[in-house]
Amino acid sequence: MFGFRGNRKYRKSASKIGVLIHRQILDALVSHKQLFQAPEEVAFTSGYLKSFFWSALNRQGCSDMALQQELLRDTCNKISPDKLWGIYEKGIALADPLAASYKAGCSNAYELGVTAGLNDSEEGAINKVTPTNLTRYLLGKTLDGPAFIEEDVVQFTTNPVAADENLESKSTDGVCVPD
């Protein structure tokens, strides 16, 4: 019985997280009609989603990684059916040096996404700051928050699409336009 109530609590939290993520994707779509064309965008988004969910759900008391993964998948499918979850999985594979689909630079983008997701989750919980770093990255803006103003943070190019004019090298697989 306790597990069922706990799952309901975590599902409610996941729904709130989903609204925040959906808002960020919609905000990015205002300026860009298609997102997730560059592998680095996909990898960053995967890192962001994983760490944002993990941090927020852990704060609620959910340490079951399988349940967190299930909630993330369900939330991705509610935001953009059959698209966002595929992007998430593709980003994980792009950032894994042992995967056949690994792309150079995606590991750094993924790690930056992890840092951004943790930053946004913590800032939201502690300072009631609305998360924006997913939108900021997708629009090629500087990431915001305490994790990005420390001197020892490695500096990354935020949006490689904005920095790279060589369009032939960009992947168009996994284009996501939420419904």
Low-confidence stretches: 1-5, 151-179
Cα distance spanning the termini: 36 Å
**Average pLDDT:** 82
| Helix and strand sequence | HHHHHHH
**What's the multimeric state?**
single chain
What share of residues are in beta strands?
A: under 5%
- The Rg value, from CA coordinates, equals 16 Å
If helices are DSSP runs of H or I spanning 4 or more residues, what is the number of helices? 7
Percent of residues in helices comes to: 55-70%
Which structural class fits the helix and strand makeup? mainly alpha
The largest pleated sheet is described as: none
Task: Write down the domain tally.
Answer: 1
List how many beta strands DSSP finds.
0
Instruction: Name the shape in a single word.
Output: globular
Report on the structure:
With 179 residues, this protein is mainly alpha-helical. It has one domain. The protein has helices at 2-31, 39-59, 65-79, 84-95, 106-127, 133-138, 160-163. Helix 1 runs antiparallel to helix 2 (39-59), helix 1 (2-31) packs across helix 3 (65-79) and helix 2 packs across helix 3 (65-79). The chain is globular and about 40 Å long. The relative contact order is 0.19.
